[in-house]
Amino acid sequence: MDLSAESWSGLKRHFLGALTQPSTCRVVPVPGPRFLLTSDGPLQGVPQGCLVDLGEVEPLGKGRRTVRVVNLGSETLTARIRNTVPWLEARWSHGRSDSMHVGEDGAELELIGLHDSLEEKPLASSFQLLLETLTGERTSSEILVRLASRRSYAHGRYDFDGTADPHPCDFGALDLSAEDLERPRSCRISFQDVTKEPLRVCFSNLPGWLVFEVDGFQRKGPVDGRFFERTAPFEVEIRPVLSPESIGHRLDYLLLQTNDGRPSFKEMLLEFSAEITSTQSFSKTARFFPGGRTSMKEATKGDFGSSSTAKTRGRMVHQAPPLRPAIAVCAIFAILTLLALLAFAFQGSF
Fold first, then answer.
1. Going by C-beta distance under 8 Å and a sequence separation of 6 or more, which residues neighbour residue 244?
2. First to last CA, the chain
3. Which residues contact 36 (CB under 8 A, 6 or more apart)?
4. Is this prediction's pTM over 0.85?
5. Is 113 in contact with 87 (CB distance < 8 Å)?
6. What's the rounded Cα separation, in Å, for the pair 336 and 44?
7. What CA–CA distance (Å, rounded) separates 45 from 38?
8. Of 133-137, 178-182, 295-299, where does mean pLDDT reach its minimum?
């Protein structure tokens, strides 16, 4: 752009004159308390204040959120809650009254929404948060709260050892030296489909003293993390391991996860306990297998480590013959032979 000298001079006079004039705009602080609202979840800004969404719950269920009031000024503020509705409870986390002093550390406001209807319908309402300084300056903010309900449907039918809901399973007191204790009490859990969508079941964190069996296939612990996943229908049998390593008081949990629509059946902790003892002492004994193989196993005077147990595993176990009598016989025979040779040599010399 080409400008004449006269045009450049005019522009300079215009801008320099404007800069030398006093400003017509001023920044004036807004009177009243200064504060900020934060939350552990998203907050949506609206012209009246902010919107808090409590999410979706079951009919007659509760939704919770925590809103934090942050004081941006140097003066202590007094916050009050006004105009709440019956289905919404707004209370301070560290106070029992409707008012709360908000200092430098701020204050937490708990919002609890109760969906008091069996119908699937959304609930929406608002309440006022009034703030006042020590000098009497006031301000207010409107907090809108929304809560929706959605009915969840069961994807499966469960049988937790005779009950429809999970419960602790106590195997009781188990004595490893008992002769009639071949198969201890077990806990059976079955899963069935009730909808077109298949029920998916996952098991995780198998303790080391439990056996997990499905359709004749076993899995022994310990296993950290997920170790089994399958769709219904099927049945699971869980029982304790009868071994010297399991002796003692046992209390562990097995994690069960499903895709059931009901929140209480999505993730469950199954509790198992037992008191495993033994009145006999265990010792190491040598076992000789055909082919020259030798194995060291735990054994007692009872049924543990007997040949009948080995036969059930599809192989024969032969007990080693005692060695001390054979050694004694060989020693006596050697001594007698030596004496006979000495006597024969003595007679030959004469």
1. 176, 278, 282, 298
2. 151
3. 69, 70, 72
4. no
5. yes
6. 106
7. 11
8. 295-299
